[in-house]
Every structure is written in C-alpha cells, then in structure tokens.
Amino acid sequence: MIVFDQVSKRYEGGYTALAGVGFEIERGELVVLSGHSGAGKSTLLKLIPVLERPTSGVVRIGGQDVSSLPKRAIPYLRRNLGLIMQESRLLFDRNVFDNVMLPLVITGHPPRDAARRAAAALEHVGLRGRDREMPAGLSGGEQQRVAIARAIVNKPSILIADEPTAHLDTDYAREIAALFASFREAGVTVLVSTHDEALFAADRPRRLVLRKGQLIEGGVVQEVAA
Amino acid sequence: MTHWLYLHLRAIAHAVRRLAGQPLGTLLSALVVGIALSLPAGGLLLLDNVAGMARGLSGTPEISLFLELDAGEAEVAAIERRLKDEAALASYRFVPRDEALAQLERSGLGDVLGGLTGNPLPHAFVATPASEDPAMFERLAAEMQTWPRVAHVQLDSAWVKRLHALLELGRSAVLMLAGLLGLALVIVTFNTIRLQILTQRQEIEVSRLLGATDRFIRRPFYWFGGLQGLLGGGVALGTVWLGVRALAQPVAALAESYGAVFAITGPGPQESLAVLAFAAFLGWLGAAISVRRHLAGG
C-alpha cells in the first residue's frame, strides 16, 4: 500500500532529514512512527501527500510512484488520503459541520449526500449534535476529533496523522488513539507518528522508529504500562 | 456540467459572502472603481451628445449634383433612377432650374440676374448620404462625377471632416483616459485580492491539503474581482446618470438660446451594459493577475 524505497530528503542548506529510508506498509495495517524531535517523522509523513518531494529514492502509494507525480495530479492523490496534523487546522470562521463538509465540497459531492456523510463522520468521532458549534468553543481534543472527522469523511484508504495527540491531555489522547484503532478495523491503512507509543500499545501496531533520519527499527510495539 | 455549475455557484456564494462580510471595504472599493470609471463613461456619453448636437445645429451634410445646362427630362429621370438605386444615400430631392432661379431671386440676388437673358442655373439634385463617414462621402462624389450629364458635384463635407476629426480626437483622449483609469482599477483589484489571499491563507492551505485543485482555490477570487468590478460599474452608471440629470436643464436652456431644441440623453441600455461588462472584466483581470502572482506554487 505504502512503499518507501531508499528515500532520502536533504533540505537546502545541507540538512539531511531522511537518509535511505525503506519500508512497506500493507493495506489495513496500523503503523506507529516514533522517534525524537528532529528524527525525520514529519518529513517522512509529508512525502506521502507530496507536501515535500524526496531528494532521492521512490515513494509508492498503491503502486503509483508519487515522488515524481505531476503537480496537477497531486490534489487527486490527496483526496484519497486522510491527513491529520499536529494542530487541528480547522477553519475557525466556519462551524464544525462546514469544516467536516469541506473535503466533500472540494470533491464536488452532491450537497445532500455530502451532508449525510459529514453527519456520519461526526457520529463516528462522537460529535453528533455539536455540528453547529464553532471550533473555538470546543476543547483541544474535540477540535482534533473534528479534524479526524474531516479526514475520514471522504472515506480514504490511508490515514496519515502527524502527532495528533501532541497537545492533548491523556484522556483525550486515549480517545484519539482508540479512534485510529477503529479505522484499522474498518480496513483503513493508518500511519501515525507519536512521541507516546504507549497510547497505541493495546492495539499492537507495527512500529517504525527513526533516529537522525534513519529507520532503526520496524516491528510490533511492546506492551507498555500506561 | 452540473458539477461545474455547482462549483461556480458555490464560488459566487463564497465571493458574495466575502463582499457582504466587509461592507465598508466593499463600498469604498466600489466607489473608487465607480468614480474612476464614470470619467471615461461620462466623457464618451458627452461626445455622443456633442455629435448629436452638432448635427442638429449645422444641418445634415449633403452632396449637390449640378447637371449640364441642356440636360433634358429623360436625362434627369436617368440620374434620378441612379440616385434611387444608390444604397449609400439616405434621401435625395430634385431642384428644377426654375426653382433654383426663384430661390436665388428670393435670396436678394435678383439684381445680379437682371442683366441675363435666360436662366443660367442647371437642374440639380441634393442628396443626403446614409452615413457621415467622410471617406464614403468622397467615394460617392467621385462616382457621381462620372455619371452622364453631370456637370459638377459639390461635396459639402469640410465641416463633417472637422467634426469627425474633433470627435475622433475627443474619443482618443477619452479612450486613453479609460485605458489609464482601467489600469488603475486593475491595480486596485490586484491589491484587494492580494489582501483577500492573505486573510484566507489558512483556508487556502487547508483546502490544498484536502485535495483542492488550483482552479477550485482561484475560482472564488475571480468571482470576487468580477463582482467588485460590477459593483463599481453600477456606481459609475449611477454617477453618470446623476450627471446627465444635473446637466439636462442647463444644456436645454443653452440650446434654446441658440434657437435649437436639444436634450442631453443617455446612458442607454447598450451603453450601460458595456460599462458593466467592462468594469466586471477589469475586476476579473485584476483578480486573475493577483491570483497568478500570489497563489503560485503550493
């Protein structure tokens, strides 16, 4: 589903964020990407939706080489991915429902169908009934759940999440982690970067560990006491 | 097609929301665009009215055909047939030589004619061309000169040429003004859209992240620029209309003092539509340049 083949990323100025990274992720896997700050987690995740391009190597999504994807084709790739960032990146001048509707508006879904799907996505993240509220009135965890609802509303086959629990307290973070596990059960491939692997331990995800731009470990995460 | 229409309707709604969301800014922009556009629009309207007034004061331009002195009725009829068939003429009238003589006597030149034994004046036709184009005038005159039994063709076009030259000069000046002000309007819209892009930066970035194409992101800005231009065009029309209303009475009084009847008119539906379309186009152009400049990449 996701293949990194000897991928390196060097920024202008000479800083190497990734060096010869290679791994494969199968359909329906839950993969936790960990490592210290500056290890290259965010850079790795940005290569999948082509927010960045590798300096060398190949990134394949569903068999398609996305590292050399033409610019005009990138939006169509992103429509098949669910992206969740560290900050919720919601639009604060729109209510919860309109935020969740945005990907469906972009893809031109008929309004009635879009509204039904947005309502279902909000239901999935436990925010049914809060759809007319403005994001500023929600807690950090609720905002992140809205962002997740927005990411899954298009029914993507892959979910990419960059530190989605970074600014949340433990209870909220657990709720979010449980949501990701539920997506795997629905057959979605989930790649999530985190500082706190323990949150996902119960779901026995596959583990990728980065250090200074190099993949040093891949396997099943060990049980860690919460 | 339905999807395309839906996306445009959504973009229009988005642009309208943005315009309505900042009423003061929208009003000021519309006033800037409108006042600037009202100058060339009013200028062109004034030129059209001046052209109409000049026609009213100076009479209709004419071509006079003088036949040979001994031209008979059959030859007069042949010339008349030719005039009748000439599509470039609006009308013509025949002036028999006796009537011409009578007119000359009535004009106070009877004494001059007293010494002559007969009527020295020929039969004549006075023709009115369908247009005021001087080139067409000259072509017609040259052609008539070749007709049999036509002794002389007198072209009454000198004043038409002067009028055309003056009107052309005026039009060129107004068009130049329109060009300069149009450029200013493009710059105003360019800047407005630049600010819009800055304030919507987060929305643009999020939309890109969610798979929005460049066209999807740009579309509301194009509509915003076009609608802002359209509002400005409306203000320009309103300004011109108020100007016409304010000038109508003094101009009518001035014309009356010269013994003429003249009423300043306009702008008509066609001119109004042209002003609105031009304003909307300028707004769209400013938006297109700004979007191209500020939304590149991503």
Automatic annotation (TrEMBL), chain A:
Entry's Gene Ontology cellular component terms: plasma membrane
Family note: Belongs to the ABC transporter superfamily.
The protein, known as: Cell division ATP-binding protein FtsE
Record organism: Thauera phenolivorans
Keywords, ordered alphabetically: Amino-acid transport, ATP-binding, Cell membrane, Membrane, Nucleotide-binding, Translocase, Transport
Pfam families according to UniProt: ABC_tran
Residue intervals of the ABC transporter domain: 2-226
Family annotation (InterPro entries): AAA+_ATPase (IPR003593), ABC_transporter-like_ATP-bd (IPR003439), ABC_transporter-like_CS (IPR017871), ABC_transpr_LolD-like (IPR015854), P-loop_NTPase (IPR027417)
Automatic annotation (TrEMBL), chain B:
ABC3 transporter permease C-terminal domain: residues covered: 176-293
Top-rank taxon: Bacteria
Signal peptide (from-to): none
Cited Pfam families: FtsX (PF02687), FtsX_ECD (PF18075)
Gene Ontology CC: one annotated term: cell division site
Keyword Chaperone: no
Keyword entries, A-Z: Cell cycle, Cell division, Cell inner membrane, Cell membrane, Membrane, Transmembrane, Transmembrane helix
InterPro entries named among the record's database cross-references: ABC3_permease_C, FtsX, FtsX_ECD, FtsX_proteobact-type
Residue intervals passing through the bilayer: 27-47, 173-193, 221-244, 273-291
Function summary: Part of the ABC transporter FtsEX involved in cellular division.
The protein's name: Cell division protein FtsX
